[in-house]
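Hey everyone, long-time lurker, first post.

I ran two proteins through the pipeline my lab uses and got sequence/structure pairs for each. Pasting them in order. The first:
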Amino acid sequence: MKKITYLLTGLFLFVAVNGVKAQASQECNIKYNLFKGDVNTGKYEEAKTNLDFLLTNCSKLSVNIYKFGAKAAEKTKDVALMKKLYEARLVNFPNKRPAKAHSDYATFLIKNKLATDAEVFSILKKAYDLSPKDMSVKNIFRYFKAVANENKDTNPQKVFDTYDDVMESVGEKLEDYNKKVSKLQVKDSLGTISDKEKRRLKNYSINSGALGQVEGGLDAMISKIATCERLIPIYTRDFEANKTDGVWLKRAVSRMYNKGCQTDPLFEKLANAYAKATQSADAYNFLAGVLAKNGDKSGANSMRKKAFDLETDPFKKARYKLIEAQNARGSRARSLAYQALKYNPNMGKAYLFIASLYQKSVNSCGSDEFEKRMVYVAALNKALKAKQVDPGCGAGRYIKSYRKNVPSKKLVFQKGLASGSSYKIGCWIGETVRIP
């Protein structure tokens, strides 16, 4: 009899407890939906009542509590609430993009002037240490600028390492946007794109363009610090300790290449060590440059082919073709750039490279002012194409420069030609363009 009583009591408690839990869960869902509805309709103050209940009783229901809550806190400028949400989110959802949570909180503090530079940097460092690619575009730049200012004279290697990490993250984000933009542009051209996808295409293009500006800003900043005079002593000093470290060697040889330090014997030493340590396509591509510099044209071509054949990623194949193009001239350089575009049709930098080839040929491909300025039209067209397919490639400054140099209406009139008519540019360019 006692056993039956215990069983019945246990069953009653089980049902009661689970009933309470079900009721609580139901109430959490009701409060959550009311809260979300208030935020979505701009009733931010009203939303805070249900938000308080959710934070107290249903803190693990959904990470969206904290996302929508942050919006309500920002709109009402509730600093205490924002801090509470930030801290509670990291406790309850530690694995749900914590770097973005840190970055967003830093942005809120900056926007509302609620923290010192040191406090903001501390939060941005937490975000950076977790995942630089989840930081906002502006915060990536802020973080690097702070590191550069603090270490450029005392510890330039730290600046270089931070730059490499940040640029790799920026590159990943740009490549991701590039792929997304490419797919949606195909749909757009076929007329099968939905309104939702059109909004995505617009957002991806805007974000990609912003990242491209950050990339340019970071390059401008590092160019003042990473001079050959600084790099060579540092890499000479650290070579023995890192001669089998593929990551260190890749970064060292890449920076030496980008800064034009290839004439120093150290570059060849680094390239050989990089190839030996990794036997990668990237390393063989640098080694091809060394062979070409030493006059071994056949060896260089063979090494480039080895690198190209070894690579399976079409985006990387495109980069290798562009590097090869950059070491060629005239029509061959253009041909190689177009080959790069076969592997990545949205490679804006390939179009910009072709534009630069045209710009360099202005004087040799034009016999008078009009003809020379029409070469700028061809260059402008390529730069505009670059921006269209790859908003983050940094085409803006090229477009601005080329546009300044196209023929004026007066010059077109003096040549007895009409705006909008076709015009074929001579020389090796051989392209037909429209007269502006």
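...and the second, right after it:
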Amino acid sequence: MATQYYTATSFDGYLADSENSLTWLFEVDGADEAQTSIAGFLAQVGAMCMGATTYEWIRTNEPPETWRENYGDLPCWVFTHRVLPAIPGANLRFVSGTVESVHREMAEAAGERNIWIIGGGDLAGQFADAGLLDDVMVSVAPVTLGAGAPLLPRRILSDRLRLVGVEQAGQFAELHYRLTEPSEPSEPR
């Protein structure tokens, strides 16, 4: 089992534009080709999580039946500090705890399968900070946004990231990095 941050980003490193929209992503030539790789990925996922902004975008911009079509009965933890309406038919758990405590629940639900962190970047960063993020899998779109929600608003240096895969899907470059745990800070002497 691995905890994986699988997402798409603009060429300049944004998940969403400055209005939290993903419209730019679906307008990229070849987006359908990139979309087909997600089916193989989802077959290996046993649990998923997302932040409130990602959840709200999905709830607002996709018909409720799309959730069942895309994710079936996959359990999903939504990290939020506010009350959010549920998507009918979605297997949701709204949580506000630390990623460490929620990760244990997700791992139990996932069994031998993987955990998918859909978004946002700060949530994925919290998993990385806790040493719970195993893989970062990013589809880079040929679009620049200039501003928006950053891919991973953390400082993670190259000693923690190992490139393990590169593929092309239409106009997208798919990059797969494996993370190592953060080193312990050294004691002052």
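Reply from user beta_strand_b:
Welcome! Quick read of the second one: The chain is about 30% helix and 30% strand. The radius of gyration is 16 Å.
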